[in-house]
Amino acid sequence: MRAALGPAFFTKLAAIVSAQHVKIDDAVRVAYGADALKRGRQPDAVVLPANTEEVAAVVRLCGRHRIPIVPRGAGTGYTGGAVPTHGGVVISLERLNRILEIDEANLVAVVEPHVVTGALQAAVEKVGLFYPPDPASLNESVIGGNVAECAGGPRAFKYGTTKQYVLGLEVVLPTGEVVRTGGKVVKNVVGYDLTHLFVGSEGTLGIITRIILRLVPRPPVQATLRATFRDVEAAVQAVINIIRARVVPAAVELIDGDSLEAVAQYLQVRSLAPGGTGAMLLLEVDGVPPAVAEEATRVESACAEAGATEVLRAGDEAERQELWRVRRELSRSLKMIAPLKYNHDVVVPKGRIPSLFALVHRLREEYRLRIPCFGHAGDGNIHVNIMVDPNDAAEIARAHEAERALFEGVVALEGSISGEHGIGFAKAPFVPLELTAETIALMKRLKRAFDPDDILNPGKIFP
Amino acid sequence: MRAALGPAFFTKLAAIVSAQHVKIDDAVRVAYGADALKRGRQPDAVVLPANTEEVAAVVRLCGRHRIPIVPRGAGTGYTGGAVPTHGGVVISLERLNRILEIDEANLVAVVEPHVVTGALQAAVEKVGLFYPPDPASLNESVIGGNVAECAGGPRAFKYGTTKQYVLGLEVVLPTGEVVRTGGKVVKNVVGYDLTHLFVGSEGTLGIITRIILRLVPRPPVQATLRATFRDVEAAVQAVINIIRARVVPAAVELIDGDSLEAVAQYLQVRSLAPGGTGAMLLLEVDGVPPAVAEEATRVESACAEAGATEVLRAGDEAERQELWRVRRELSRSLKMIAPLKYNHDVVVPKGRIPSLFALVHRLREEYRLRIPCFGHAGDGNIHVNIMVDPNDAAEIARAHEAERALFEGVVALEGSISGEHGIGFAKAPFVPLELTAETIALMKRLKRAFDPDDILNPGKIFP
After folding, report:
1. Does B52 touch chain A (CB under 8 A)?
2. With 70 as the cut, is the pLDDT of residue A3 above it?
3. A380–chain B Cβ distance below 8 A for any pair
4. What is the pLDDT of residue A2?
C-alpha cells in the first residue's frame, strides 16, 4: 500500500487540488499527525481541497490506490478521530469555511464544515437566533468536527447535542460518490435516516462537505447561579430537586473539590468557595424574563433544600462572567496538578452520579492517582480527569489500569464510556466493555456497506 | 417459498408461541392484511409472541425457511408499512403492551412497543411529565409503530418528532439476534447511532421490542388561539411574523377553506368562521403562566399585522376544546366530500407553503378534483387530501396523475414527499423523485447489511 505513495501519486493529487494545496513537508505532517489527544501517526500527505468536487476526486484517487484517507476539521478532539493510524492522506476541510446562508424565515443555517462553532453562534445571535450546542472548544472547533463527533456541552441537558440540530448533509462517500441527505425541512421520513447515521460516525462513513442546521430563537435573558455544597451527594440531591420542581436549566455544571482547589491555585487565590466546600454547581436558566425570574427562585429553593452552604445569583453580566470563570479556567488549571491529563467523558443516568463519584474515590485510593472531576450533571456526563506525570512510567501504568476499571464501573452503572468525545482509536479497545459482540458485528457490516475497502479513517471505533 | 407455509410450519410456530397465538383463519388474515391505507396482501399466518425471546425465535424460524416477516403495531399507518406485500407471517406485537418504568429522577420511560401513545402520555402527565409527540392517531396508534415510522404531529414544530425522544431500543434483527442500542442516558457516542437508524426504518431493519423514551417536564399552562384570514398567503404571513417575533408555538395548525366547509357540513352548522374566510390558524403556546400570557399577546399582534379578519383566544378549557374541535373533526369530515381519501403528508420549507397551495390549486383545476388541505404550518408539513369516489375509475386515474404531479412539485420546492407517514409500499414508486440513484443504492446496501436474505418487511421503501 505504502509503495503507491510516491512522487507520481503526489503529482496526481496536485492535479486535483493544485500543488500548493498538497503538503508533504515534515512540519505539516507532524502538525496533522496529532490532535488534542497528542498521539497518533503522521500522514504521508495533507491535501486541502477547495470544494466538494475536489474532495470527491481525492477520495476516488485514494480509493483506486487503496490509500487510507483521514478527514480532519480543527483537530480539537480528545480521542484521535482526526489522526491517522496507518499513514495515508489527511483531507483537511479548512478551505470549506463559509456560512452559506442564514434563513431567518425557516430557522435554518447552511454552512460548510470548517466554520468555527463560536463564529456561527455569533452570526446567528446577531439576528436573534440561537445555535445551542456549546462544546468547551467552541472557539476553536469547527461545525464539521462537531457533527462528525456529535459534540455536546453544558447546554445539552435543555437543548440536546449537535444531533438535534442537523437537518441535512452533503457527504462524499468512500466510493467518491456525493449524496445529499435530509434538507431544509424538520420532518422528512423518506428512506433511512442517513443524516443521523453520519452524525457521530467519526469520519468513518463519509466526508461531510455541507451541513444544514436547525436554529431556534435566542432566549432573551439568562439567570446564572452558583451553589456550594459539603459534598457531591448534596449537589446531586439539588439537581434531583430541581428536576422534581420541573425546571430544566440551560446548564447544570458540577465541579468537585479537587477541581476547585486546582482552579484556586491556578488563579492564585486562597479559596473560591466557603471553607469545607466539596462540590459546586453552576446553574443557568434562560428564556423570557418573567419565566426566568420564577425558575431562578425555584432553583434557589431546590439548592437550599439539599443543604447548600451558599447560593449566589449574578446581578449583572459582569457577575455572570465571574461565576462562569471558574468553569472556563478548569481545563487549564488541571495542569497545576500534573502535566498530562487522561480526560474521560463518561456518562451515567444522573441519579447515579454519586455512585460514579464513589467509584472514582475508590480508584484514587487503589491506584494512588489524582482524579479531579467536573461536568454536566444535568445529563450525567462527568469529565473524569486522570492526571499523570508523563515521565513516570509506573504512574502511567496505574492510570491505564484505573481507566479500564472506570469504564467497567460506568457500564455496570448502566452508563456509557463516551458521552461527547467519541471513540477514535484511543477508546477503541474499550468498546467491547459496552457493546456486545453482535452489536459490534452489525456496526462492522454497516461500515462495510459504506466503505467496502476500509479506506476511510481506518483503525477507528472498532477494537 | 410459499410451499414451506404448510401445517408443519404452523406447528413449529405454535411450539414457540403456543397454538392459541398462531392465527390462520380467514377473518384474522383479512384483518391483518390491511391498515389505514386499506390495501395490501393477506398474511399466511399471524403470530402473537409474548416477549422478546419469542419474537427472536419466530424470526429465526422464518429466516430458516426464507418466509417473509411483517412486524405490526396498531395498523393505523397510511402507507401500508404493517401490511404484507408477499404474504408470509405477520408478527403482531400486541401482547408486548406494558409500561415498564417511569423514572422521574432521570426523566425517562421504558416501554414495550404496544403501549398506546395516548395512554403513555396520560401516565406520564399524572406525575407532571410530558411525552410531546402527538400524531392524530394517538388514541389508537402505539409507541412501537410511532418509532418505526417516526411519527410527527402538531407539536413537532416546538418539540420535535418521535426521533427526538427515543434514547434506546431493544431490537430483534432479521438474523434473530437481539441487540440493545443507546440507553437511559441522553449522551452516548459509542459507535454508530443505531438507535436513530431504526427510528423511521419502517420495520425493515429490525423488530422493536423495548423502547427507552426521554420525557420533559409538563408545561403547566397553554393558551389556545384561533385566527381567520382571507387566504392562505395571509395565514402563512402570520406564521412568518410569529417566527420573526421569536415565538415558538407548541402548535401552528393551518386549515384551508375547502376543509373548513367540509367540517361545517359534517357538524351541520352554517359556518365555522367569518364570511370570506379562506384559511384558519389554530395556535397554541405553552409554558409557565407569565411567559405564556406574553407570548399569546405577541401571537395576536403577529396575526393582526398579517391582516387576520378575527382572532379569538380561549378563556377556559371548554373554549379551548371548542377551538380544537374543528381540527379534530377534520379527518372524519372529509368523508362528506368523497368516500376515498388519498392523504399525502408532504413537506416544504415553511416560507414556501403559499407555493405549495398554488400548486394544489393548479392540480384542482387541471385534474378536476377536490383537494382540501390542512396541516402543520410551523414545519411546512401539509396534509394534501385528494378526494375520490372509489367507483369512478376515471376520477381515480386523474387522482393518480395529480399525485405524481404533487410529488414532483414538492421536490422542486426543496420539500419532501413524506413528513410523517413514511413510504411503506404506497409511496415506494415515488422515492426516485426525491432520492438519487446513488442514495437509493446506499440505502439498499445498508438494508442488506442488516437483512441479507430480505426477509424482514420486504417490498417496502424501495421502488
Report:
1. no
2. no
3. yes
4. 54
